[in-house]
């Protein structure tokens, strides 16, 4: 190699090194799920082992991430997210806040099973104390499948986490080229890769044509504007969900109270309607200090004030939050107050 060539390659090397150092630092926190799942054959897309692969393997599978961010990984747990629990949720939230407080971190990606992805995302939306991007990502097909969706989802999640545009928009889920806000997103299909949608209220944006495109943001309080704080919490108050159906009777409500529920979310029919026998049990529960929130098993629309006797009994409304998200907000609300008026305010603001 001539001296001129050596100088040129040294200059190029330095330029690349400076460029890499200038990239945003994105930490990937891995929790398991299908995105880290493995199956015996590459055509198997159900009945696989979720959460099998470690974070380094996931990172090595997508070298293109390094073009957008200075990526590093950390394994939090290796679970199938149907087994997510309060202990793990709080551990994750505290680690997220530690990293966000570190000036060396510019954004966070969390790999997660899809089963409870929307719950973890909404919880973090309420307790993450920074406007730096926090992006959750999963996959519907295991890593070993042909046309696995995980690698592209992970790349796009890292790109969004490294982007300036994602700052201040709350916690988001990036999957299948869509960017959805944690509050409004829900899983809509048991197996299809296009499962995460924000029905009616819509996605915040897309990744398409090689670009991150945002079109809107939520008007609800989140992250830096949230009043909730998990830093001193080791557990959350028990809140149960009761799902309504024909022949509904108070058995489930009574069981929840017996188990020590401080709050109950009722997934009612229509606009949060309650069968009379269950209503009697919930009315009694509310009179005895258990906070009861009416939500709905119907996927769209807000649960609103309706039958006067519900209001007279002190039952609250979940707005557009589905029962599983209403449960998390009620848990956090109960860490601050048990005043139903205050808690109703929170349901209107978050
Ligand atoms: N059972 C898996 C989980 O939630 C499903 C998935 O990731 O898609 O971890």
UniProtKB/TrEMBL annotation:
<feature type="binding site">
    <location>
        <begin position="114"/>
        <end position="115"/>
    </location>
    <ligand>
        <name>substrate</name>
    </ligand>
</feature>
<dbReference type="InterPro" id="IPR027475">
    <property type="entry name" value="Asparaginase/glutaminase_AS2"/>
</dbReference>
<dbReference type="Pfam" id="PF17763">
    <property type="entry name" value="Asparaginase_C"/>
</dbReference>
<feature type="binding site">
    <location>
        <position position="81"/>
    </location>
    <ligand>
        <name>substrate</name>
    </ligand>
</feature>
<dbReference type="GO" id="GO:0006528">
    <property type="term" value="P:asparagine metabolic process"/>
</dbReference>
<dbReference type="Pfam" id="PF00710">
    <property type="entry name" value="Asparaginase"/>
</dbReference>
<dbReference type="InterPro" id="IPR020827">
    <property type="entry name" value="Asparaginase/glutaminase_AS1"/>
</dbReference>
<feature type="active site">
    <location>
        <position position="114"/>
    </location>
</feature>
<dbReference type="InterPro" id="IPR004550">
    <property type="entry name" value="AsnASE_II"/>
</dbReference>
<feature type="domain" description="Asparaginase/glutaminase C-terminal">
    <location>
        <begin position="238"/>
        <end position="347"/>
    </location>
</feature>
<protein>
    <submittedName>
        <fullName>Type II asparaginase</fullName>
        <ecNumber>3.5.1.1</ecNumber>
    </submittedName>
</protein>
<feature type="active site">
    <location>
        <position position="34"/>
    </location>
</feature>
<dbReference type="InterPro" id="IPR037152">
    <property type="entry name" value="L-asparaginase_N_sf"/>
</dbReference>
<dbReference type="GO" id="GO:0004067">
    <property type="term" value="F:asparaginase activity"/>
</dbReference>
<comment type="similarity">
    <text>Belongs to the asparaginase 1 family.</text>
</comment>
<dbReference type="InterPro" id="IPR027473">
    <property type="entry name" value="L-asparaginase_C"/>
</dbReference>
<keyword id="KW-0378">Hydrolase</keyword>
<dbReference type="InterPro" id="IPR040919">
    <property type="entry name" value="Asparaginase_C"/>
</dbReference>
<dbReference type="InterPro" id="IPR006034">
    <property type="entry name" value="Asparaginase/glutaminase-like"/>
</dbReference>
<feature type="signal peptide">
    <location>
        <begin position="1"/>
        <end position="20"/>
    </location>
</feature>
<feature type="domain" description="L-asparaginase N-terminal">
    <location>
        <begin position="26"/>
        <end position="218"/>
    </location>
</feature>
<dbReference type="InterPro" id="IPR036152">
    <property type="entry name" value="Asp/glu_Ase-like_sf"/>
</dbReference>
<feature type="active site" description="O-isoaspartyl threonine intermediate">
    <location>
        <position position="34"/>
    </location>
</feature>
<dbReference type="InterPro" id="IPR027474">
    <property type="entry name" value="L-asparaginase_N"/>
</dbReference>
<keyword id="KW-0732">Signal</keyword>
